Amino acid sequence: MSLRYGTRIILRRRGLYAPAYVNTSQSPLLARSWQRWSSVAASPASERVLFPGALNSKFTNALEFTRPSATEAIPTYRVMDQYGVVIDEHSGVDTTDEEALKLYSHMVTLSIMDLIMFEAQRQGRLSFYMVSAGEEGITVGSASALNPSDVVFAQYRETGVFIQRGFTLDQFMNQLFSNCKDGGKGRNMPVHYGSRQLNIHTISSTLATQIPHSAGAAYALKLQNLQRPDLPPRISCCYFGEGAASEGDFHGALNIAATRACPVIFVCRNNGFAISTPTADQYRGDGIASRGAGYGIQTIRVDGNDIFAVRKAIKEARRRALEDGGKPILVEAMAYRVGHHSTSDDSYAYRQKVEVEDWKRRDNPITRLRKWLEDRGLWDENKEKELRGKARKEILIAFDKAEKEKKPALRHAFTDVWETLTEEQKAHMNELRSVIERYPEEYNTDEYEGGLDGLKIEDSK
User: Fold this and answer.
1) In this protein, which residues make up the domain named Dehydrogenase E1 component (predicted)?
2) Count of domains forming the chain
3) Residue-wise pLDDT tens digits, 447-457
4) Of the candidates 64, 84, 109, which is a domain's last residue?
5) Which one is predicted more confidently, 48 or 246?
6) Using an 8 Å Cβ cutoff, are 250 and 256 in contact?
7) CA–CA distance, 353 with 360 (Å, rounded to integer)
8) Catalytic residues
9) Could you tell me the residue range of the domain that residue 16 belongs to?
10) pLDDT value of residue 361
11) Same structural domain for residues 365 and 446?
């Protein structure tokens, strides 16, 4: 290309040459580049906008404002109704009977663990807990449709994701009691699980921070998928509630994921309440799904009480997320939080108890799947009693073992900040040991692994 020809393009970009001066027919790449720079309609007869900020919008001489109330709400996808009846037998549930039984077992185990741990907190044996009642189908169902190698970023009500991925009851209890076998070494509050082996990042208390983290991880996975075609492609999957979608992190994450085409599934659990704030006080738009369209993200809304619908939606979302090098997908799973926000919350202070009980009785993911199983002759009352009895026994055994374990060694208050202990950290450890030795009646170290010897520097990194 001649200097004069290239100069004309540069000058045109600065508004000094007319479009007729530029010939892009010889180079498709040049044509695409030129289209990016075009900021006006191609001709006076154009019917659509070609402004860079809003492509493909039709011109109109009608002065009309878009009114959300005049637009139909985004539909909610479901596979079976609240009575466990499959709506379209032709498409089916895309789940084997054996797999459905396993999913049901995980949901029931989760619900029983929630009841036991909630009561344990009320007895003062546990400092904090959060139940997943009403959302078991979302977490268990979505996790079952992901690949085990996919990276997960959870919020704090995704216990079902951990169960489905293989997190053991012992691991749950060790973390809840922050004992010496806790993978986090007692440094985090209860229900903040994490597992490197299961590709689940440790949960953070700070609301919504996992959303931009998942977008960044997805971009890294996008590069890895391109650089290592010999490995199975992976995606990132992020969970959050509709309350977290009110945070700026949500908007920044969706925007960067859309503009950088990151292979990530954003799963919003819309359970109706952000702690004590109902959705009516959170937003006026059509839920969270409408925001996905605003960011140019493929979006679906699904019935969270229908585990088969959740599975199908996530399976298809994963397929689409890996198309053409990667793209983000938003899934809004609708549910009702029948439990309190946490053990620190009394939800009856801001909603009627009769409303909660009605949801428990009328429709929830566990009873809906049970009805489907019973209709197929796969389940009955005897099997239900056997499953619940076995699950309760296993949970209580793990509970008892974890409660009796010692707390992590005192040195873990200093380790893992740097690769090796700094001289300043060693001085702090010696100072703490000295204080405890001078006032033994004030400090009981017997409940910590290794006792006072757990502060020995030679035992630390």
Assistant:
1) 106-409
2) 3
3) 999 999 999 88
4) 64
5) 246
6) no
7) 11
8) 119, 205, 341-342
9) 3-64
10) 85
11) no
